[in-house]
Structure formats: C-alpha cells, structure tokens
Amino acid sequence: MKRIDPDELELEERVIRITPVDRVRKGGRSRSWNALVVVGNGQGIFGMGFGKANEVPEAIRKGMGNARKNLVEVRLSGSTIPHEVIGCYGASRVMLKPALPGTGVIAGGAVRAILEAVGVRDILSKSLGNNNALNLAAATMDGLKKLKSLQDVARLRGKTAEELLSKWA
User: Fold this and answer.
1) 10 Å Cβ neighbour count for 57?
2) Which of 29, 30, 75, 155 lies 20 to 30 angstroms, CA to CA, from 121?
3) Sign (positive or negative) of CA dihedral 152, 105, 87, 140
4) b/e per residue 109-122 (b: at least 16 CB within 10 A)
5) Averaging pLDDT over each range in 5-14, 86-95, 153-162, which range is the top one?
6) Which helix (H) or strand (E) holds 124?
C-alpha cells in the first residue's frame, strides 16, 4: 500500500474526545489527559490518532501527529460509500450503509466526526455493541478500510466492470 504524504494535503483536524486520567500515588493524585483526534481532507483521505500527555494542548498535538502518520484512502461513490459494510474493533461494531443524496450523515459522536473528515455527506450508520469512543472510532476506520470499488471487485474476479454490471441488468 502506498504511503500518503500529509504535507501535500490540506487536512482538517477534529478532536473527537478528550479524557482526563487520574493516577493515585503515595504523594497524591496526578492528572494526565488523553485526546482522540481525526484528520481528513474531505475527499476520501483520513487518519485517526491518540495522544497522551500531562496537558490538554500537548495531548491534542500528539494525537494530530499520530493521525497524520496513519492516513488511509477510502473508496467513495459520489457523496456516499459504494456498499454496506460492518466494521469491528473490540466489542464495538459499526454498520455503515450508503444513502441517497440529501439524506445527510446519520451518525453520532466519533462515527460522525470520522465520516465528515472523510468527506461522506450521505450515509446511514448504526453502532452495535460497546459505545466506547475509541473503539467506535477504530471500528469505523476498520469498516471504511474494507470498502471496495466496482473496479477493485472486477479486477479481483478477473473480469471487467461491465461484465459484473451486465448480470444485474
């Protein structure tokens, strides 16, 4: 798989969730922060990152750096996805279904932030199982990675796209 260079892209950055973490020691409590971040260009390229630090801005900066290192390209079909898919991570599952133009993004929380960063404007989604933001984000990323275009399926089967479509006509 070809590596995507983040310096060549106009990436929009979004913080999905910031979580405080307390650690209790003999001398008292010490607080640190976790940040879940997504970056995307709105045209099918996105990345997700997780940063941990003692201060919120530093955690966000680390998350952005990790997200820029983990860029992925997604197959889109206009303003939606080419087919239905279920992404899994841990105890979380996310079902993503293509929708007609004008439907909008029917998703919540972490799933919505990722889909908007990718550039999907019409989609239906349902989160199944655990609703932990980190697991839902990873399950959404898994589902988007599983998407295949008509040309990809045709190439895998050793046929042309027209041959595949002729069976449905």
Assistant:
1) 10
2) 155
3) positive
4) ebbbbbbbbbbbbb
5) 86-95
6) strand 123-129
Mean pLDDT of the chain: 90
Question: Are 113 and 105 contacting, i.e. CB atoms less than 8 angstroms apart?
Answer: no
Q: Which amino acid is at 23?
A: R
Please tell me whether residue 156 adopts helix, strand or coil conformation: helix
Contact between residue 35 and residue 63 where contact means Cβ atoms under 8 Å apart: yes
How confident is the model over 7-17, as pLDDT tens digits? 778 889 999 99
Instruction: Quickly tell me which residue has 């599983």 as its tokens.
Output: 146
Which residue from 12, 10, 31 is spatially nearest to 20, judged by alpha carbons? Answer: 31
Work out the angle at residue 138's Cα, subtended by the Cα atoms of residues 45 and 8, and round it to the nearest 5 degrees: 20
What is the Cα–Cα distance from 61 to 131, expressed in whole angstroms?
25
Number of neighbours of residue 144 by Cβ within 10 angstroms:
24
| Secondary structure of residue 115 in the 3-state scheme | helix
The count of residues in the chain is 169
Greatest distance between any 2 Cα atoms in the chain:
72
Among 164, 9, 159, 2, smallest CA distance to 82 is for: 164
